[in-house]
Specification:
The protein is mainly alpha-helical. The protein has one domain. Helices cover about 70% and strands about 0% of the residues. The protein is built from eleven helices and no strands. The chain has helices at about 1-30, 35-40, 55-65, 85-115, 115-120, 125-150, 155-165, 170-175, 180-190, 195-210, 210-220. The chain is globular and about 60 Å long. The relative contact order is 0.12.
Length: about 220
């Protein structure tokens, strides 16, 4: 039963993190003049409109079952750049909105854990431990999803931000690299570069908020 609860918690928090991420893209695009995603029902925290069978259901469940770090992806939010008021600038904001939303959720969880850290650490209640597992999973998954998507390689959000910043020859070179983005991304995953990035991020996180180590240990998120 413990494994079943762990899988359910991880799967539910992935659904929430992905829904936050995609709805932020859709909401931002609408605010900058493109209603395409809003008209498709993507400005919502309901995960159903965002679900991609492989990326949102099958892949995260497999990772949860084998005990690997859980993440996934959703259906891409459709954006018509020609509807945006300032195509180059606004596309950057739309790309950044998803990771920014995940970071805001992670910061919100940190604030709540900071406020209630004493009762959390002193309590032996099973319900408190259950809530801690939810909170720590929300924190970890939202941070990982944000950091992963900020990698400046197509089709990730970081590439949209980088593309808006580049000009001239640098932009032309980036356009040539774009068709090979998925292959580059596979190489990064295969060579465990993501593990190095994640370890660096969480080292900084634990230095800034050392109480998180004790909470995560109690929740069983770290050992």
């Amino acid at each position: 039963m413990t494994d079943i609860f762990r899988i359910l918690i991880q799967f539910a928090t992935v659904l929430f993190a992905i829904s936050i991420h995609e709805s932020a893209h859709a909401w931002t695009a609408d605010k900058f003049g493109d209603p395409t995603a809003r008209l498709q029902g993507r400005v919502t925290l309901n995960p159903i409109p965002h679900i991609d069978l492989i990326g949102t259901i099958i892949f995260p469940l497999i990772l949860a079952i084998v005990g690997a770090p859980v993440f996934g992806w959703a259906k891409p939010v459709m954006v018509n750049p020609y509807n945006l008021r300032n195509r180059r600038r606004d596309s950057m904001f739309v790309s950044a909105a998803g990771p920014a939303a995940n970071i805001m959720v992670a910061l919100g969880v940190i604030v709540l854990l900071a406020i209630f850290q004493q009762p959390i650490l002193l309590s032996s209640s099973a319900s408190i431990v259950f809530l801690m597992k939810i909170a720590t999973n929300l924190l970890l998954i939202n941070i990982f999803l944000a950091v992963f998507n900020l990698i400046p390689i197509p089709p990730l959000d970081g590439s949209g931000i980088l593309e808006g910043l580049l000009k001239g020859e640098a932009l032309a070179m980036f356009e040539k690299i774009k068709p090979y983005g998925f292959l580059i991304l596979l190489a990064i995953i295969y060579t465990h570069v993501l593990d190095v990035i994640a370890n660096f991020i969480f080292t900084i996180l634990f230095k800034l908020f050392p109480f998180l180590i004790f909470i995560m240990m109690k929740a069983g998120a770290v050992s």
